[in-house]
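Page 42, continued from yesterday. The earlier attempt failed because a stray header line got pasted into the input along with the sequence. Redoing it now with the clean sequence only.
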Amino acid sequence: MNGTYSAQTKEVVAFADELSKAVTIPVKTWDERLTSMQAERVLLEEDSFRLISDWYFLAIMNLAKIPNCSAKPNWIAKRLGISTPEAQDAVERLKRLKLVEVSNGKLTRTSEFITTTTDVPSQAIRKHHLHNLKLAELSLLNDDVASREFGSVTMAIDLKHLGKAKEILLETRKKVADLLSKGTPEEVYVLTFQLFPVSKKGDES
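This time it went through. Structure tokens are written below.
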């Protein structure tokens, strides 16, 4: 209750930020200790969160931004390179969670608030990130260089600057997402940042 975030809470906040790019409605996290905070909202509890951790759930929600987005599973499957049963199951789950609805054969999102609890297991978030890394690998191998951007830098760092660096990456991610979201959407993209250690602390003797 002192206003600080645990490592697990930070992961949930990062996922909620990514989820906000998939919908046009506010995405809010909810500290369940503050029981006096009352509002009409959809609460993505543990089981529900796990249900949408597969990468194509957010992709389907973003497809709904593309004009004339069909709700037909075979159309969705072809656009995302997944199986028709996967597409059909995903749409049904999203409908049950009231994150999307189907009207006149078109897929649309609801206008309800989406929230996540701060105690969502990080395993689901790690699964989502792992899926995105696999998608990046496939894109690197198969997509034309003009349609993607990959880059990296290896450096020795002062750990006291790590927190500030994460803040800059988060702000940059938001700016890039805002820029690319302008205009008429045509395709669904994933933007990821990875900053991780390759050296490990140990016995220096």
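Notes: The mean pLDDT is 81.
Reminder to self: strip header lines before submitting.
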